[in-house]
Model the fold of this input.
Amino acid sequence: MNELEALVRSAQTSFADAATPADLENAKALFLGKSGRITELMKGLAALPVEEKKTRGAVINTAKQAIEAALNARRQALADEELDRQLKAEALDVSLPGRRRGEGGLHPVSLTLERIEGIFGSMGFVVADGPEIETDWFNFTALNTPEDHPARSMHDTFYVEGGSEASPLLLRTHTSPMQIRHAVQHVKRYRALIDAGQAMPEIRVIAPGRTYRVDSDATHSPMFHQCEGLWVGENVSFKDLKVVFTDFCRAFFESDDLVLRFRPSFFPFTEPSAEIDIQFQSGPNAGHWLEVSGAGQVHPNVIRNMGLDPERFIGFAFGMGPDRLTMLRYGVNDLRLFFDGDIRFLRQFQ
Ligand code: DAH
Done:
């Protein structure tokens, strides 16, 4: 092997040994740099006679090209390695299972509301919805609740800004305002029929939703649920209320031997009024009377505020607590658990 072949071999080895682009540039300088081996040889040509210059020059040139080719090959190899490394580092394993969203479910109180709607729906009741921010008129006055009634005090009711002195705004304290709202709509629709003395399709409605009172302990939450019920027609009696509510409770709790008690009570918007208690014949609550709803025959003043003649129309109403029904159905003893949002508690109902 002549001197130049050895030089090319030595360059190839140095380039192959260079592990990084910087190492490679350093190795290149040794051969092709300003004072590199090839450059030195080129400079040496100057001292040679013309003929020798040509042949020697051509040989050096061949060596130089071989070294440059080795350099370029190594540069490319290093660049390929780097690209390969990056691709590997940033690789996306598309065969990995994705992150799944947890499956949601209905809140236990929502499950109860669905159940209530289903059972009353099967008895011909429609479902109505209305505002949670109410006027004083719908929440109290129209429901025959006098100015000095304790329920109207700041102590029990959340008043909100935006109302006027004549018409204060508040968070509804019960779903009863929906009795008026729904009945007024219904009556408006059938006004002509009613005035002509013809039969008005009966009002049969339930109105579930959120209600608010200044109250908080194990059995009271400042936000709670109620479900209003209203049945108005020309021939509705207290017997109908008893039948409907008994059927409802037995269907809701899936217990045919469940017993109901109507205990005399007072509400401004019903006369007579009752509290409805239920008694289970078996299970953890067997034998106890449990209050589940207020009820009564709709007061003539309320019938009048619905736009109907109390001499002709009669009805009954009830207002029950779905939160309490949920507690009884699932055996939960602290109402606050429903509204804390603790997923460990809520998940048990899915
Ligand atoms: N609104 C009453 C309350 O919140 C419950 C109630 C009682 C509703 C009797 C009624 C009813 O419709 O007839 O305490």
Q: What stands out?
A: The pocket of 3,4-dihydroxyphenylalanine is lined by residues 174, 176, 228, 267, 270, 294-296, 317-319 (CB under 6 Å). The chain has two domains: 3-89, 108-349. The mean pLDDT is 93. The first strand starts at residue 126 and ends at 127.
